[in-house]
Amino acid sequence: MTRIVGTPRPLDRALQEWEPTGVPLGVPDDAWQALAGVGSCVVVTGAGVSTDSGVPDYRGRGAQRGTPMQLADFVSSETNRRRYWARGYQGWAAMGVAAPNRGHAAIAAWEDAGWPCELTGLITQNVDGLHLQAGSHRVVELHGSIHDVRCLDCDEVTSRQLMQDRMALANPHVRTVTWRGHPELRPDGDAVVDDWHDFVVPACESCGGVLKPDVVFFGETVPRSRVERARDWVERTEAVLVAGSSLSVMSGLRFVRQAAARGLPIIIINHGATRGDDLASVRLDGSVSNLLEGLVGAGTPRHGAGGR
Q1: Considering the domain 63-98+147-215 in this protein, what is its CATH number?
Q2: Is there a common fold for 2-20+28-52+100-143+222-297 and 63-98+147-215?
Q3: In what order do the strands lie in the sheet with 240-243?
Q4: HSE of 221 in the Cβ direction (CA atoms, 13 Å)?
Q5: Which of these is catalytic: 104, 131, 143, 271?
Q6: Phi then psi for 46, rounded to 5 degrees?
Q7: pLDDT tier, 30 (very low <50, low <70, confident <90, very high otherwise)
Q8: In the chain, how many H helices and how many E strands?
Q9: Distances in Å between the alpha carbon of 143 and those of 26, 148, 197, 214, 224?
Q10: pLDDT at 194 over 80
């Protein structure tokens, strides 16, 4: 594991004077102090949290390069929707069976125990739903969930698995591959498919309208209610931890900048550089799952599980 520190923001006096009773194995002292020395923290996660579950990230080693579907292109073209759903049909064969990993479990345990500090809330840029599956409750899924499908005409929401079953009935000649691997799969469930021109896309069963995964496409705005809830968490917390995100898109970076404007300690855990490195109090480069598990799993709460 390699530590990367650019121009870190200074921790406040309380953090500098706090002496830990035990430092987690493999976790530097300053990361432990930054969490155990505050009363609460907001966690922001990206695709790097889910790579140990077999879900690839967008920019890491082996990530599938390509042009994501734009909302305008999806809405305006039946051909584009056919191609998208044909790819999504294959991608779901892998995404639909992905299970939470140790990193997801560590964050869920953190929320449950209130250790090493209270978890104000979890803001995730991921659409895979693995945080909820792991048992996290205070979650804002900024970009929605790939487990849901929304009709663009009547706004009805149905399950992604139901859509998968309907596509299977409509396309009996198309076989799915259970696991396609990083070179052929993206973290939004979009898989590489060469022959998609005859793929049949079911319409909404209620109104016959156009169906779209209930996720935020590129060119689409994150719902205001989600952003406001996340901003409120950052406004009333005492620290922010980023895990598995390069912060390349503003939807996540904005919360780090908000925390920096408040002078909060900011811990960033990621493989590779991020756009928020110059704002970090502590910057760790290593296994996201290992570091999260180390931060949450070591030590004994001084005032019992669930709070200080």
Answers
A1: 3.30.1600
A2: no
A3: 2-3, 282-285, 266-269, 240-243, 40-45, 118-124, 139-141
A4: 4
A5: 143
A6: -130, -170
A7: confident
A8: 10, 10
A9: 32, 12, 28, 8, 11
A10: no
For 163, residues 6+ apart whose C-beta sits below 8 A from its C-beta are: 149, 202, 211
Q: With beta carbons less than 8 A apart as the criterion, state whether 29 and 20 touch.
A: yes
Question: For the segment 66-118, what is each residue's pLDDT rounded down to a tens digit?
Answer: 567 899 999 999 999 999 999 899 888 778 888 999 999 999 999 999 988 99
Cis omega (within 30 of 0) for bond into 116: yes
Is 173 marked active-site?
Answer: no
Q: What is the pLDDT of residues 233-279, one digit of tens each?
A: 999 999 999 999 999 989 999 999 999 999 999 999 999 999 999 99
Number of Cβ within 10 Å of residue 177's Cβ equals 12
Q: Which residues pair with 150 in a beta bridge?
A: 157, 212
pLDDT at residue 29 is higher than 80: no
- Please name the fold of domain 2-20+28-52+100-143+222-297: Rossmann fold (3.40.50)
Enumerate the domain spans of the chain. 2-20+28-52+100-143+222-297, 63-98+147-215
Q: 154, 121, 151, 115: which is closest to 42 by C-alpha?
A: 121
Answer with the residue of higher pLDDT: 189 or 159: 159
What's the length of the chain? Answer: 308
Helices 102-113, 288-297: crossing angle, 10 deg rounding: 20
